[in-house]
Design a protein that fits this description.
alpha+beta
Length: 194
């Protein structure tokens, strides 16, 4: 950061810290105790696809790394594309194996980052649900290094449960680095597992 940036009040954005993902298993314990949400076993990494052979090779290597895991009980890792043109690499684990799911997400992010495609990474999400079948995603914003809860309302349409999101924010304040700027809590409609 330069002298002019200091004078004009500009600040550097927080650097991504992928190790923050490893806080999710302990946050899941808090989430279950505070709000009754448990992991669904589905997690995904969202990225903007880039053109060219280098990106295709980096993506294939990340997927091969996850597909090589012989301990996987669910379907293999899958790639989907949402209606907005973003790609999702989705991992499925048993709901009680959140640490392995988090390791999968970390591996995909690290693989794409180490091959120079960090700017294409947008977010990672881990799905949760409660006994009433309400869905919740804990979203990690790659470029901010922070988390936020996303709770779509059931019944179709693009509506979210803002009260639940704020409740989860308060419950997880000591477990995760929560994004304080609510304007950055963007909706991830159609995200896998939600």
């Amino acid at each position: 950061m330069g002298f002019l940036d200091i004078l004009l009040g500009r600040s550097k954005p927080a650097a991504p810290d992928l190790d923050q993902l490893f806080a999710l298993p302990s946050a899941a314990v808090t989430l279950q105790a505070a709000a009754g949400f448990t992991p669904t076993g589905t997690g995904a990494v969202c990225f903007a696809s880039a053109e060219g052979g280098a990106f295709a090779q980096a993506h294939q290597e990340a997927q091969a790394l996850l597909d090589a895991d012989t301990g996987r009980t669910g379907p293999p890792v899958e790639r989907t594309r949402d209606e907005y043109g973003y790609s999702w690499l989705v991992s499925h684990r048993t709901p009680d194996d959140l640490p392995a799911l988090v390791s999968d997400l970390h591996a995909v992010n690290s693989s794409l980052e180490s091959t120079g495609f960090g700017p294409q990474l947008l977010c990672s999400v881990v799905g949760f649900e409660d006994t009433e079948q309400r869905r919740l995603g804990l979203v990690y914003l790659y470029k901010r290094g922070t988390f936020f809860p996303f709770a779509p309302l059931a019944g179709g349409g693009e509506r979210r449960d803002n009260a639940l999101e704020l409740q989860i924010k308060a419950a997880l304040a000591d477990d995760l680095r929560i994004e304080q700027d609510l304007a950055r809590w963007f909706p991830i409609w159609g995200a896998p597992g939600l």
